[in-house]
Structure formats: C-alpha cells, structure tokens
Specification:
434 residues
C-alpha cells in the first residue's frame, strides 16, 4: 500500500462534491432555530418539564442554552485559510506526515449525496490537526470535542473550526435529545462529521471499546429508503511519538503521581521550551512519523439491506443491540486501518526480552519477522523509504534519543523503568497480532 499525498477521491467522482456543504454557509442561528422548532426536541422538553415539575418555558430556556453550547459557529475562511495553514505548519513541523489508502477506487464510488462520517482511533490531541490537515483540501470536518476544549481561548476557536461540543457521560435526557437532533440534522444536511468512538484518548495505547451514544443518534435516524446514504470511513492513525504519552500512562498507574492542571501546564511549557532551545541550537529532530490510513468505506444502506433490518423501526433495546454489533464492526475496521510505524515495531520486538541486550542485527532480523507476520495478516506496515532496514533504524533512533533504550558496544537494552512507555507504543499494534 503506497503512501500518497492526495486525499481520497480528490479531483475524482465522489468526495469532491463534499467540499463545502451549503449547510455550513447558512449560519449557526439557522441550526439553533431548527433545534428550537424541532418536534422531537419539543416532545423531550414537555416530558422533562413534567418530570421536573417545571414550566415548558423553563425547559425551553435549557434547550436554548444547550443548543448555544453544542452548535458550532463555522468560519469558512478561518477553516480553509488560517486553520489549514496553521494545522499544516504544526503537523509538518513536528512529524514526517504520511497518508495511505486501503482502496482509492472504493472512495471514488461513494455517492456524492451521501452523508459522510469519519470514524477514527484516538491516540493524541494531534489527531484533530492531522485529520483536518489531510481533509482540508476537499472538505470541512465537524469534530465532536469534549470538555477539554470548553475553555477560553480554545472554545471560540474550536467552534469557528466547526467543532461541536458534547458533555461526555451526561445522563440529562433533555440535553441528550438536543444533542441527538443536532447530530441527526447536521448529518442529513450533508455536514461531514468526524467521531472518536472510544470517547477519549487511549490511556495505555490499546484500541478501546466503542461508546454508542453518537453512533446511536446517527443510526436511529437513518432510513435506508431515503435520498442520502450514510457512509462511514474508518481511519487509523499512529505515531512514532505521542506528545502526551507519559501523562496518559499516569492515569492508568495506580501508584503514579497525578498532576494538577497547573503542574500539567508547567510540564507542557517546559517541554515546549526544551524543544525550542534544541531548535535554536540546531539539535532538534522531528518526532518521527505520523501516518494516517483510510480504510474501505462502509455503506450503512448496504449494511442494513444485507441484514434486512431498519434501525429506525426498532424498539430501544433491540436497536441498541444492533448498534453495538455495528459499532464493534466499525472498531474492527478502524483497528485494521491502524498502521504499524517504526517505533511500534521496534518496541514490540524489544519487549519480547526487555531485560536482555540485543545486537542491532538481531533486532533487525526479529523486526523483519514481525513485519512479515503483520503483512500476512493484512496489516499496513509503514516502512519509510520502503526500506525495512531504515524502518528499524528510525525506530531505534527515536527510542535512544528519548533515553528509553540505551546502546553500548553495539548492544541495545531497554532502560529500567521505561518498559511501560515502550508497551504504550507496542500496544498500538497489539490487536493486529491478536
């Protein structure tokens, strides 16, 4: 599977017509107005007011507040000019970015009237910039973002970039009704959405279980006989370095010292300062490769027709069962799309005997064997320059530069106490070997 710099279907039939949906140009007030006048939202407001013993006007004030919070305020100029330039500058400064496809021909066959949803694994907060960078040439994406982005100045910026805000884990039925209708109306309007089904960053590097909320909202409104198909595009991303790796590992270590927000900010600033000093001294290197792989599109119309089901006609329990089954299939497709990058490959090999020093040639031979196992299983292995030896060299160089692995007399050994971090990277491809 050869890397490419062109977006899927760019300049071809299919995705090219999704560049800027007219609904993005109508303004957030139109969307908010549609939510306030929506019959489903009205019914939910009536039920909520009755449950709380309050007036309908009180419930509708909440609806208005929720709508104001959720609905983005997209600025097309900011998205395609400033946002595209900034995202491109950041990701290309930090990483050697690469894009690959499972099957470009499949993308060309997508009906231009389809509603598109990108389904992606969540490795880093850089995922937003990375996917936005690759897609900005041909479409505007609307991301679901959580509480982390609701602080100034991130909140107005994320809204201007088309992000919609969600309160993860909220059990408020009125809020969930407003969020569900926004997601459904946006999808029906042709807005291209991007969802992280795991709901949060991977804490241990593994691909997580899917959350069903946003998927359920989309699927229960889908009608196979309707004008628009609903097409899911699995996206796999992997990095030679996740900027948040040590912080993420702290959240799964019961003995780890938890950082306060101020401590985390200081750590981030120290990290930025250290790298700026290296840049000034010309001793800085990019953080290896960041690879994005688009898997084959999944048509919801074809999926339900093959199984003879219509989710919009099912009761809640039966529907959730079907949604869960589909979500697991989606996550399996995302898992297959995740590329094996140099650091993940070398980390996997070194962890086979973490206390044993290995010669470079032995690491190389074992990595070649691992690559063959992965490719036999149909996994995408990204070898820079299409050179396996160079891939091993890159992986070892990244790990030694970070002082996770030490080299002495031609022998490489995992530094005591750093096996957990290597496991974080090896875990990113563990499912491809399971």
């Amino acid at each position: 599977m050869a890397p490419s710099s062109a977006p899927p279907g760019a300049g071809e039939a299919g995705m090219k017509d999704h560049r800027v949906p007219l609904s993005l140009l109508t303004g957030r007030r139109v969307f908010i107005g549609r939510l306030l006048s929506d019959s489903h939202v009205f019914k939910a407001a009536q039920e909520y007011a009755s449950e709380q013993g309050k007036s309908l006007e009180w419930a509708f004030e909440k609806v208005k507040r929720y709508a104001e919070e959720i609905v983005p305020a997209p600025n097309i100029y900011l998205y395609f000019r400033l946002g595209n330039w900034l995202g491109k500058a950041v990701v290309r400064t930090l990483f050697r970015v690469r894009l690959t496809f499972a099957d470009e021909a499949e993308f060309r066959r997508i009906d231009p009237r389809s509603s598109l949803v990108f389904i992606m694994n969540h490795r880093s907060n850089m995922d937003y910039a990375l996917l936005g960078y690759f897609s900005a040439k041909w479409t505007a994406l609307s991301f679901a973002v959580g509480e982390w982005a609701r602080v100034w100045p991130l909140k107005p910026l994320m809204k201007a970039m088309g992000a919609f805000f969600i309160r993860r884990g909220s059990q408020n039925p009125l809020y969930r009704a407003v969020l569900a209708r926004y997601v459904q109306i946006a999808s029906a309007s042709g807005i291209v959405q991007a969802i992280y089904p795991e709901g949060r960053l991977s804490r241990d590097g593994r691909l997580g279980e899917p959350k069903l909320g946003l998927l359920d909202y989309l699927l229960r409104a889908f009608k196979p006989e309707g004008e628009r198909d609903l097409v899911f595009i699995p996206v796999g991303v992997n990095y030679d370095r996740v900027l948040e790796d040590r912080t993420l590992l702290l959240t799964v270590d019961p003995l780890g010292v938890k950082k306060s927000g101020l401590t985390a900010a200081r750590t981030a600033l120290a990290f930025v300062g250290r790298n700026l000093r290296l840049m000034i001294r010309r001793g800085w290197r990019r953080f290896g490769y960041a690879v994005v792989n688009f898997g084959p599109p999944i048509s919801m119309r074809e999926y339900v027709n093959r199984r003879g089901i219509n989710l919009s006609n099912l009761g809640k329990d039966a529907r959730i069962e079907k949604v869960r089954a589909f979500a697991l299939e989606l996550m399996a497709a995302v898992g297959r799309a995740i590329p094996a990058v140099p650091v993940a490959l070398v980390s996997t090999v070194l962890l086979e005997n973490p206390e044993t020093a290995l010669a470079g040639k032995e690491i190389e031979g074992r990595t070649f064997g691992l690559i063959e196992r992965l490719e036999y299983r149909g996994a995408l292995v990204y070898s820079p320059r299409r050179d396996r030896r160079y891939a091993v060299k890159v992986g070892l160089r990244m790990l030694t530069l970070r002082h996770l692995v030490v080299e002495a007399d031609g022998l490489y050994r995992v530094i005591p106490g750093e096996a957990g971090l290597l496991r974080f990277y090896a875990n990113s491809i563990a499912h491809l070997l399971a």
